[in-house]
Amino acid sequence: MQSPVRGGTRWKRFAVVMVPSVAATAAIGVALSQGALAASFSVSGQDFKVKAERLDGTGFTQYAAVDYGVEGKDGKKTAHPVAVNGFKTATITNLCQSVVAPIPGFGDVTMTLSAGKDAKHPVTAENLYIDLDQLDSTDATFHNINIGQAAGTTSDGTHAGIAPGDKDKVDGGSFAQDADSATLTGVQQRAWATTAGTFNLSGLHMDLAAGDKGCY
């Protein structure tokens, strides 16, 4: 018996494609919400949207880098220049991350992760890095900012926001800046990767929707 067709879509086939990935994402999401895993969000060769009402971070550093992704069936690597924003610690209110993925035979599907709905239940992170190439509608305040030193190198020779063992991420020849702390409000950015040593997602919620219905 053929699977039911609605609007040209075979729903059983769609379920076979989507259910395993959704179940895996949900399991990882539960672990992240309990602070059980280090976090890494990236989509091969694809950007995603990040939105937050407020981010308060310490040990801020920003430097230029290049992310390499894989696009197409030929596996060809593509290079994306990015600005890496790093924080030793971060507290985030009303966080949203979304990515649009094409599903064969169905079309675009948007997966959205949201957490930290208010200041009493924020998202917290340690050794957080966000690789982005676009930042919009953001107000920022930096404390004791230092612009132009090699990739966040502080006066004592350490790297603000860089975890031990991660100093190979630093490109000493590029533009960089660092600050003791930073507060960003109304954050809207396009990113290629987000990583964290620890990511605690309070009130984690995942949603799937047909079409391009991202965080903004």
Write the layout of secondary structure elements.
Elements: E1 5-6, E2 9-10, H1 11-33, E3 39-42, E4 48-71, E5 76-103, E6 107-115, E7 123-136, E8 139-143, E9 146-147, E10 176-200, E11 205-210
Shape assignment: globular
Radius of gyration: 19 Å
- SSE class: mainly beta
Largest sheet: 9 strands, antiparallel
Query: How many helices does DSSP assign?
Result: 1
Number of domains: 1
State mean pLDDT (0 to 100 scale).
75
Q: How much strand content do the residues show?
A: over 45%
Q: Uncertain regions: pLDDT < 50 for 5+ in a row?
A: 1-28, 150-172
Count of individual beta strands: 11
Distance between the termini: 41 Å
Approximate helicity band: 10-25%
Order of SSEs: EEHEEEEEEEEE
Structure in a nutshell:
The protein is mainly beta. It has one helix and eleven strands.
Overall description:
- The longest helix has 23 residues, at 11-33.
- This protein has one domain.
- With 216 residues, it is mainly beta.
- Strands 3, 4, 5, 6, 7, 8, 9, 10 and 11 form a nine-stranded antiparallel β-sheet that branches. A two-stranded antiparallel ribbon has the order 1-2.
- The protein has one helix at residues 11-33, and strands spanning 5-6, 9-10, 39-42, 48-71, 76-103, 107-115, 123-136, 139-143, 146-147, 176-200, 205-210.
- The radius of gyration is 19 Å and the shape is globular.
